[in-house]
User: What shape does this take?
Amino acid sequence: MSLLEIKDLHAKVGDREILKGINLTVNAGEVHAIMGPNGSGKSTLAQVLAGRDLYVVTSGQVLLDGKDLLEMAPEDRAREGVFLAFQYPVEIPGVSNMYFLKAAVNQIRKHRGIDELDAMDFLNLVRDKMQIMKMDQTLLNRPVNTGFSGGEKKRNEIFQMAVLEPRLAILDETDSGLDIDALRTVSAGVNAMRNPERGMIVVTHYQRLLNEIIPDYVHVLADGRLVKSGGKELALELEKGGYAALGIHEEEEAVGRV
Amino acid sequence: MTAVAEQVGQWLDLFTNQPAAEPWVQALRSEAFARFAEVGFPSTHIEEWRFTNVKPIAAVSWASRPTLNPAALPEHAQQHLAKHADIAHPFVALNTAFLHDVKVIQVPRGKVLEEPIEITYEGADGVATHPRTLILVGADAHCTIIETYKGTGTYFTNAVTEIVLGDAAVVDHYKVQQESSSAFHVATLHATIGRSAAFSSHSISLGGALTRNDANAVLSEGSDANLNGLYICNGTQHVDNHTSIDHTKPHATSHELYKGILDGRSYAVFNGKIIVRTDAQKTDSKQTNKNLVLSDDATINTKPELQIWADDVRCTHGATIGQLDSEMLFYLQSRGIAKMDARNLLIYAFAQDIVDRIKVQSLRDSLERILFEKFHEHSE
Assistant: This one.
């Protein structure tokens, strides 16, 4: 059974159809990159998979380990192993990063029938992961993402991913707003999590992230459909010729972004 | 009988039946009762009471609590009792008409009290009480006061607290309103703040069917006032907070932050008056009122009321009314946190900055516990 199967997925926001029939299969152990111009529907796909109710799925099916993902509430998708690293992680004043993450870890563990972690175990768990992400420990005591720099927010996303150990990780433009050092740290964090049990979808506009996180497959998304698929060399082709070489025109106005 | 006479009738009996007090107290009572008899309970035609209908209080014939002959008050109290809170306010007048058993707290000049002074007023079914507190803090003295209001059954608490801060005094005042769910609670706090003195007030409204708080601060030269408030209402609760910050002299600062969480069919009012008088140049004043509305049927009326007569001042004000942020909710859910837990976490977070301003650890802990229970927090 495949880890993730997306079959003819259509989704709209308001009256506007953004995903117009996506078909994609991700097997455990694979990293799939989805590239595409602004407004092609990349972020929409990521958000739809995580369960954002802003988008309405009008037809199609998504199976995670054979289970109907679209029937599940966002929290249940997370508990079943879906993780979305947000393009724009929201700031949540008044909720400490530590409290939030401990609640998340324990709700997921409970769902999986594993003993919940106490404060000490939790600290031990996060300490190592923070080091890998080169994150300052004080970030744990600060409110979620509040006052974090762009780089700190992205690192915090990958740090959470490392702590929650998802089955399927979806990275939405994780490279945007990162300088080269931060990009390498974040990519190293992601690469450290690649394993035969875990699948990843890496959504990006640019090829540079794919120099660090080398995908098994690359798909090009344009106007709500996957128009071309190939190996990692497809990303390089795009880098050279741009989307125009594939006959894809970037829209002036970005749609489908949150 | 006119409506006013009808309302006043039952109070006249209670008034005349109370034990006699010292002549100066008796004089205060009589003057106040005359004032109350003249105006009766305020109607919603009066601007200050537009959104708060007190008819349910007027409609009940309340018993009075059996009172002993009032103890003699310290002489210093004579200079200040009923000299700060204004009997133009009908409920202050009513409270003053029933002066007895005044709680007087005196902190001598220069004295720093480390431990908070705690006062608890308890209401009993069917009874109207008029708790009166007078807090006199000498120059350079520091103290912390916690007033707690609670009780059982249907009762009417009509409290007045006067606080007088000497020059450079520092006072932290906490009022925790945890009245029973069918109680009526009306309270006026009046602080007269000396030169370079710092006053902070924290008003936490949790219980009561109908609550009206008036918090008034009169500042002097270089004084600092911090007015914080948190009101949490549900069901058919009605909570009205009227505040007045009066800058009379230059270089004073005031910061005000009131936050409300409204659920069910509750109704809240915030009216924040700031007066900057001609002499009060270099005033720096900031007012913020934020409301989190959790239900379609809850209502909030928020109004800043600025009267600025000086020209070299900085006054800002802002009010927000919002719902839970759907993006924040989704973020928490996307990490595996159940929607209800995510919602409660965000509600709790909304109140956090008011809770953080509470300097008394034990009070902060107990408030956190109450909020936890109120929002069924569970950290599983």
